Amino acid sequence: MTNEYRFEFRPYQRRFLRSLTTNHGKWDIREGIILRLTDESGKVGWGEIAPISWFGSETLEEALDFCRQLPGEITDEIIFSIPDELPACQFGFESAWEWESEFFSMPNAQCPMPHAQSYSALLPSGEAALNQGETLWQQGYRTFKWKIGVDAIADELKIFESLIHTLPASAKLRLDANGGLSYEEAKLWLWTCDNLKANGKIPIEIEFMEQPLPVEKFQQMLELSLSYETAIALDESVATLGQLAACYQKGWRGIFVIKPGIVGSASRLRTFCQQYQIDTVFSSVFETAIARLAALQLAAELSRNNRAIGFGIDHFFEQEETCFQSLWNDL
User: Which positions are annotated as active-site residues?
Assistant: First the structure.
């Protein structure tokens, strides 16, 4: 039996409190699309399309074009035939379709937030990280991510030496290069981490280095993962489900950072993770509470090694509305 839904969508913009700086550049405004599906009984399903084109998804304009060409009434068949070239659309529409809980379909439903200890908090790049770590620790965070590959490596290594002694001894730190290091720079970072640990000079745990090299340097990242004790996680290399499957087939058995908002079909991701039991870290794409709820549900279902999830990003925005109907009305 084919179900039909009334389909509505509204674009949104959210300005970062301060620019997010990565190797990809500066990001000032998060743009996306909120979806609403209403079935014949009046039950509402919420979804969100939150693309990051420079990370591997479709562009916002491509997502908007797709939504604009759809009729006002859509079916299950349409939802599950969205092409792989539109992974953020796949996730957004499937999330709305899977909105089965009666509680979350109520008009005033809100997104539950796990305790901060289960989140990895994103630190600002550069020296600003030294000032915010203590504040985030007081808020309950115990795992932190710091962007590298943004400034000169000599400067970042100096800041790193200070950062590992600024954070409390029980903290975990992730170093995220966003594919911005050269092979020699990646080796220097990994050697530094290994050397500090071997000599007992690092009071905190370096959990892993995230995406040290560009996507096309997969084989070199695989070699590095076998040559150093400090773990490596793939991120940009596994942005979509197709990329994730390809890296697994090419031999990657390390950590996979999965951004549900742009990975593609949630149902197919679920099948893949359950079949291959991969080591995952689920991470935010700076979505609203709507997509975050869907992503957190996947993380709770598919995470295996008790790793903090990468959703500690609330401090990059003004306090957002978590009542979904109010969020919709405000657009």
Answer: 147, 259
